[in-house]
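User: Hey, my collaborator sent me this sequence without any context and asked if I could get a structure. I don't really work with proteins. Can you help?
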Amino acid sequence: HEKITVNPAEIQIPSELAIVCFRITQEAVTNAVRHAAPNLIEIELRQQDDELHLVIRDDGRGFDVDAALNRASMGTSLGLISMQERASLAGGRVELESALLQGTTIRALFPFTAR
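Assistant: No problem. I've predicted the 3D structure and written it out in structure-token form, which is a compact way to encode the shape of the chain:
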């Protein structure tokens, strides 16, 4: 199951940033389906003050974030690195929260002022 929320519903995002958000979401959902066996994946896109928040949550197996980032830094897990690099190139950042058997939350935060 999936749940998608956009707030405000009519938010106008520049196409370059929309592509970055799509690619990060694609990677996060692919990872969740491939590795976490979730029952639910939630995707939320919202403007909060002068930031655009993209939040992808799942209720899957979860993982040890520090161990995954360590593996990624050694080149064995490119998904997390690609999300971080995409966000960084767009002036944003990625925050990861996960715990075994408690799911995962990925937040990508970007500077953003609605047009």
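In plain terms: Strands lie at 2-7, 41-48, 51-58, 93-98, 104-111. You can pass these tokens on to your collaborator as they are.
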